[in-house]
């Protein structure tokens, strides 16, 4: 009897040890799986230091690296001809997800995604819906632009600080592409909703990586009476902010909160959370939830918005913006997406 009891107890102990080893192995296995998961990001020509959407995407990837314990790689494109070889380099190295930042990379992603059907791709700002290994992160930039337009027009009406009351607003775009125009169309509509007879000057530099040209165009708009200049030009827009700072007028940042660039000049920023989109899709891919097609980020899911105002902006303006946000979410305001 004692012998049988000894055998039973021995088996129980062995089973417990095996269960413990199995749990430990599973934990180690999960950790190893994450450590072997590789994400590579290819920037547009603006580079990761554009303080705009390239940097925002990079920050989303680095957050994933830190929190999800994955491996990441950054490749910066110097010119448009770099897109395809940069994407191919990551695909050939068997990266689990390759992130392409920007509308301009559309054709390159289509080409490389077809060459490497087993590699998953995320493209920011461009619609690719017919490839099973590509997901597109799209943003309702017009919503963020509209909020920025309402905000600065309201400040102009209240004769805020350095404003002149001339009702002139400047916009400096980079390339004339859909994401840029959605911002601008929304901004113009927002301004005109508050000041119907306002003058909105819209010019494009044709570049995302040339601060000098951004500054030059902004100075010409300021010379025409603009109290506020909205930059929608990536790294080029840093020159716009510099021009506003030198001339004592206000700038509106884009894509991310750019108040740190010039705290007393950037009144707010029209934001699209490229960092949130990048992190979210990396996490889904890691967890086996990658889904091709188009994912939209907007006010309803905190994918776009307005950065906090600079000090001194009246509470009445903040209250107005909160009301407009609620109306947009409720579908009460129709915002154009094309510049006219």
From TrEMBL:
Q: Does the keyword Signal apply?
A: yes
Give the protein family: Belongs to the BMP lipoprotein family.
ABC transporter substrate-binding protein PnrA-like domain residues:
39-335
Record PANTHER family: ABC TRANSPORTER GUANOSINE-BINDING PROTEIN NUPN, TRANSCRIPTIONAL ACTIVATOR PROTEIN MED
Principal subcellular localisation of the protein: membrane
Where does this protein reside within or beyond the cell?
Cell membrane
Q: Which UniProt keywords apply?
A: Cell membrane, Lipoprotein, Membrane, Signal
Q: What InterPro entries does this protein map onto?
A: BMP_lipoprotein, Peripla_BP_I, PnrA-like
Name of the featured protein: Basic membrane lipoprotein
Q: How does it sit in the membrane?
A: Lipid-anchor
Q: Which GO terms describe its cellular component?
A: plasma membrane
Instruction: Quote the SUPFAM superfamilies the UniProt record gives.
Output: Periplasmic binding protein-like I (SSF53822)
């Amino acid at each position: 009897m004692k012998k049988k009891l000894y055998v039973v107890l021995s088996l129980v102990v062995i089973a417990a040890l095996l269960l413990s080893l199995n749990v430990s192995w599973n934990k180690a296995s999960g950790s190893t799986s994450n450590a072997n998961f590789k994400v590579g990001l290819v920037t547009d020509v603006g580079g990761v230091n554009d303080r705009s959407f390239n940097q925002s995407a990079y920050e989303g990837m680095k957050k994933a690296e830190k929190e999800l314990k994955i491996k990441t790689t950054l490749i910066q494109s110097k010119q448009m001809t770099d897109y395809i070889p940069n994407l191919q380099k990551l695909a050939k190295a068997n990266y689990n997800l390759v992130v392409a930042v920007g509308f301009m990379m559309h054709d390159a992603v289509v080409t490389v995604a077809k060459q490497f059907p087993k590699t998953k791709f995320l493209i920011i700002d461009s619609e690719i819906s017919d490839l099973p290994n590509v997901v597109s992160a799209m943003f309702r930039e017009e919503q963020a632009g509209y909020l920025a337009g309402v905000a600065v027009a309201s400040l102009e009406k209240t004769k805020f600080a350095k404003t002149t009351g001339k009702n002139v607003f400047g916009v400096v775009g980079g390339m004339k592409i859909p994401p840029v125009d959605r911002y601008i169309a929304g901004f113009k509509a927002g301004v005109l909703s508050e000041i119907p007879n306002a003058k909105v000057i819209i010019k494009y530099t044709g570049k995302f990586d040339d601060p000098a040209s951004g500054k030059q165009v902004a100075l010409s708009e300021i010379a025409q009476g603009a109290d506020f200049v909205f930059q929608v030009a990536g790294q080029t827009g840093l020159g716009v902010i510099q021009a506003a700072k030198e001339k004592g007028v206000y700038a509106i940042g884009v894509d991310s909160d750019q108040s740190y660039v010039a705290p007393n000049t950037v009144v707010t920023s029209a934001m699209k959370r490229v960092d949130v989109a990048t992190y979210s899709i990396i996490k889904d891919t890691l967890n086996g939830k990658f889904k091709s097609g188009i994912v939209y980020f907007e006010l309803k899911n905190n994918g776009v918005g307005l950065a906090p105002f600079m000090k001194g902006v009246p509470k009445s303006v903040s209250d107005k913006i909160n009301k407009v946000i609620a109306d947009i979410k409720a579908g009460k305001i129709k915002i154009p997406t094309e510049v006219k």
